[in-house]
Amino acid sequence: MITPATLTVLIFVVTIGLILTLLFRPRLTGTRGGKELAFVALFLLPLVSGGLGLSEHFERSKQTTFCLSCHIMEPYGRSLTIDDARFIPAAHFQNHCVPADEACYTCHTDYVLYGGIRAKIRGLRHVYVQYLGKASQPIHLYTPYNNRECLHCHLGARSFESDATHSAIRDDLVSNQLSCLTSGCHDGVHNVAQLGNLKFWSGAH
After folding, report:
1. Do the beta carbons of residue 41 and residue 48 sit within 8 Å?
2. What is the C-alpha to C-alpha distance for residues 106 and 88, in angstroms, rounded to an integer?
3. Per-residue pLDDT of the chain (205 residues; tens, 9 = 90+)
4. pTM for the full model?
5. How many CB atoms lie within 10 A of CB 117?
6. Residue 150: which of 164, 126, 122, 169 has the closest Cα?
């Protein structure tokens, strides 16, 4: 079965072939059929190819390997294998509370491609920094971590709803008035600055 990526490449190659044909044989556009061919080659096929490519890239950008392909993200990938349950990302990753192949996206659903216009513009800046610039250290979130990222899994879960502590502050968590991370409850996140002093899970691959 042909994959979306292969289909995108095939359409792209056909498009280039048709455009080159029209460039070297411009007389073809003198007929109605030639004009239709030019419309398909210059407008329709590039639109289809671009749409398929964007769709494929959106799916690929959800993958943990995509996020960790940037050198600056390598320590964040390592932090997923910290052998300490107090580190929330590590505990979720190692216990398959989040899909291992979409771990980053599951907890950062509004980041870059999946966020608003500002997030997408920041994503373009990340591309520039990756290939032509230099990233500032340490990296940080542009906006405070939104409880929505925790609650889209935990809200409604028995372990969350039946817990007395969570029940007492449920409304404040839902409204983001009290942060899951910075309130002192679950503040062990990636903590990449400490990686040299921590143990790592031997079962991590």
Report:
1. no
2. 13
3. 777 778 888 888 998 999 899 888 888 888 888 888 889 888 998 888 888 888 887 888 889 999 898 888 999 999 999 999 999 999 999 999 999 999 999 999 888 777 777 777 877 787 777 777 777 777 888 888 999 999 999 999 999 999 999 999 999 999 999 999 887 889 889 988 889 999 999 876 5
4. 0.73
5. 7
6. 169
